[in-house]
Q: What sequence folds into this?
């Protein structure tokens, strides 16, 4: 116990409290191919890293770590996970050797009273994380961790848990929710794969943006009350919930700006946001 407290103190010393909060991102990560393509989305991820302060560490809530509890990666060297199939071999050859941070994992665990948090040594960085972060920080020198999404819990539960991560923003940790607001793979149109969406997808993209801009978070939490378009946009919640984590960290004096605001494949949007 004493050793653990010393580790937390050492981490607190290394991640000094800053005068300004680190921005928060929600990133529409889209296809794994964005992880190797030089396109408008990956270009904007690179540009975002130049626009915001360099973080001390990165914590990602990825749609692709969906578990029956809440976990945080706690290994020194997280592996690159290729959690997909049917893509070119070049994509499977990519590794992103960013370090982890067991100390930051311990601090993240200590901040969360909402639930018990498990320190995980088996996962790593899935494509919801590395396809984005490798463009932002290509040198892979900044520690990167993931926080899992407990699939048993209601959206409001995730929103409230996210609020408990605020102290990390004060210490220069970049928190990124990685998913997609509109994500219906069963309805993907290959005719629109490079751009374009169904009418309902455009409508829901606009609805989500308006609610985000007006800070109507409770309506976004209760997305199942937003009509049939919302049910088409969010047939399952795992890609939507990371956005609620990001929004939960917005302070009353902070604004939202959007980037990569585009529909692809008919039923997917890349719309992303920065809170600062």
A:
């Amino acid at each position: 116990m004493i050793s653990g407290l010393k580790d937390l103190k050492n981490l607190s010393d290394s991640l000094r409290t800053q005068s300004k909060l680190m921005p928060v991102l929600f990133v529409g990560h889209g296809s794994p191919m964005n992880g190797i393509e030089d396109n408008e989305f990956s270009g904007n991820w690179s540009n975002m890293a130049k626009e915001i302060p360099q973080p001390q560490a990165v914590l990602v809530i990825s749609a692709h770590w969906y578990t029956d509890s809440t976990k945080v990666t706690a290994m020194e060297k997280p592996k690159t996970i290729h959690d997909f199939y049917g893509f070119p071999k070049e994509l499977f050859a990519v590794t992103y050797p960013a370090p982890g941070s067991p100390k930051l994992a311990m601090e993240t665990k200590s901040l969360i009273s909402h639930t018990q948090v498990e320190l995980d040594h088996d996962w790593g960085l899935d494509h919801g994380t590395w396809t984005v972060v490798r463009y932002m920080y290509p040198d892979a020198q900044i520690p990167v961790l993931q926080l899992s999404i407990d699939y048993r819990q209601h959206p409001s539960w995730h929103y409230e848990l996210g609020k408990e991560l605020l102290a990390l923003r004060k210490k220069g940790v970049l928190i990124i929710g990685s998913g997609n607001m509109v994500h219906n793979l069963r309805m993907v149109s290959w005719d629109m794969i490079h751009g374009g969406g169904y009418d309902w997808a455009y409508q829901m993209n606009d609805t989500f943006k308006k609610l985000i801009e007006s800070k109507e978070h409770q309506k976004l939490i209760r997305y199942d009350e937003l009509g049939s378009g919302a049910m088409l946009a969010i047939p399952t919640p795992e890609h939507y919930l990371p956005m609620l984590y990001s929004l939960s960290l917005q302070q009353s004096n902070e604004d939202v700006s959007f980037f990569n605001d585009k529909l692809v494949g008919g039923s997917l949007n890349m719309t992303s946001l920065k809170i600062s």
